[in-house]
Amino acid sequence: MTGSSARFELEGVAISPDHYVDGARLASATTFEDRSPLEWTRVLGHMARGDAGIANAALTSAARAFPSWAALSCTARGEYLHRLAELIDERSDQIARVECLDMAMREESLRLRVIPRGARNFRAYADLAVEYEERSWSSNNTDNRVVRMPCGPAVIITPWNAPFMLSTWKCAPALAAGNTVVLKPAEWSPLSASILADLIDEAGFPPGVFNIVQGIGEEIGAALVSDPRVRRVSFTGSPETGRLIGMAAARNLTPFTAELGGKSPLIVFADADIDAAAKKAAGQYDDAGQVCLAGTRLLVEVSVRDEFLEKFLTYTNEHVLGDSRDDNTTISPVIHVDHLAQIDGFVQRARRSGDNVMIGGKIWREDGLWYEPTLIEPVSNNSEIVQKEVFGPVLTLQTFDSEAQAIELANSTPYGLAGMIYTTSAKRADRVGRAVRAGTVWVNCFLIRDLSAPFGGTGISGIGREGGDYALDFHSDLKTLQVLQSSVI
Fold first, then answer.
1. Per the domain annotation, does 150 fall within a domain?
2. Which one, 72, 96, 225, 303, has least CB within 10 Å?
3. What is the CATH number of the domain that holds 341?
4. Whole-angstrom distance, CA of residue 197 vs CA of residue 206
5. How many Å apart are CA 170 and CA 175, to the nearest integer?
């Protein structure tokens, strides 16, 4: 491990390939390649590859910085978060350009919506922490208060999709609650986290409060989550990895929250606005379907199946596969050549098992990472393509005869992250919305997020909740303070 000032330039932005620990850049003896999904032969950078030694250095730094950071008032900590938010706003175009190259989400979406959300995350949690009202009541001749205490270093492990926004979404409440942070971004899209480290430094955060380490999950991630100094772990990724992290955290009784993907239903009743439902269903192909909340299982009342399908195909045909830097593009390439093979593997197995591949079903260009928008009508609800998350531009189409059957199908996978319902009946929206087992259910809309609302899943979609006071409570130890009445002046 050595200090480093190495930089490489990308889209006019100077980017460090190194970790950020204790307020300084730190190199590793080995590196890993970071490639662009837009041009798979293009290596964007050789990034420092962390190991147990780097993990120890980052946690030592976070543990050392914790007491003084925790001692600050919520208002004082909020001033740092607000400064960081201002810097994100100033650099949002730069971050969007780099992240577009790094993970191929459409640059227009990143520029207008996703990166600005990162600034909103820091502002929102800075303000929520200040506005928190302690719960108080009187009983048994005592006055009682519930107060939040910062709990210690938090390890945050984020996925490769929307990496900047999801990093800020997880780190903001940890910092606002008074914890120090070690962030480990996904190795397939690490560049925007490196930019975040520069902004943290520019915002003047005390050394050690916010650390960023890079590398392969089983090498550095495992060392981070198994360390007894860690007092909170927050992870987004696959159920398989989530189970491993959860077991490691459990050995130290470290509280753990995880968002582990979904297989969300999009339910269309006969009384719905069919055109609006079909348009939103075709929109699930956006970002190449690499959205955990996407409604990938289209459940349509049988009497309107043909009408829905006709409109859906019309809207799907309007999609443009292309370069994510082009505003006309609506479907970007997928993140990695291995992920492309995984998506195609799901589709080819479905085809061999007798499922009907209605549209798409193949790689768009042999010289790129695009996959055609695909719709599959399964022979059985037990088909792999129905039951497992593909995380690509692949949807399934099933029909139902009754409200009860729609609910049964919606709840028939082990996932439970989100769902969508299209109906014009308020009573049906309430009945079905309550019956669908999911952390978030939208009615006649999708992906509208209130930062104060809880977010998370049921089943293998995860444990715990993020968002609003739910995230601040997770990142705190709660204390009940009882004072005998009339015993103090």
1. yes
2. 303
3. 3.40.309.10
4. 12
5. 9
Pairing of strands 256-259, 462-463: antiparallel
Q: How far is CA 38 from CA 41, 91, 102, 118, 386, in A?
A: 9, 22, 8, 24, 29
- Longest CA–CA separation in the chain, Å: 79
Count the neighbouring beta carbons within 10 Å of the beta carbon of residue 328. Answer: 8
Tell me whether residue 425 is in a domain.
yes
Based on the fold, state whether residues 334 and 363 are members of the same structural domain: yes
Token pair in block for residue 21: 């620990």
Query: Which structural domain, as residue segments, surrounds residue 142?
Result: 2-260
Q: Classify residue 455 by its DSSP letter.
A: B
pLDDT 10s digits, 69-95: 999 999 999 999 999 999 999 999 999
Number of structural domains the chain divides into: 2
Element (H, E) at 480: strand 476-484
Q: What is the pLDDT of residues 239-273, one digit of tens each?
A: 999 999 999 999 999 999 999 999 999 999 999 99
The amino acid sitting at 182 is: V
379: which 2 tokens?
A: 């022979």
pTM over 0.85: yes
Q: Give the Cα separation of 484 and 86 in Å (integer).
A: 45
Let me know: does 97 contact 183? Beta carbons within 8 Å. no
So which residues are the catalytic ones? 259, 292
pLDDT tens sequence across 126-182: 999 999 888 899 999 999 999 999 999 999 999 999 999 999 999 999 999 999 999
Residues 135 and 196 in one domain: yes
b/e per residue 182-209 (b: at least 16 CB within 10 A): bbbbbbbbbbbbbbbbbbbbebebeebb
Do 466 and 259 touch, CB atoms closer than 8 A?
yes
Angle formed by the axes of helices 426-435 and 403-410, nearest 10°: 30
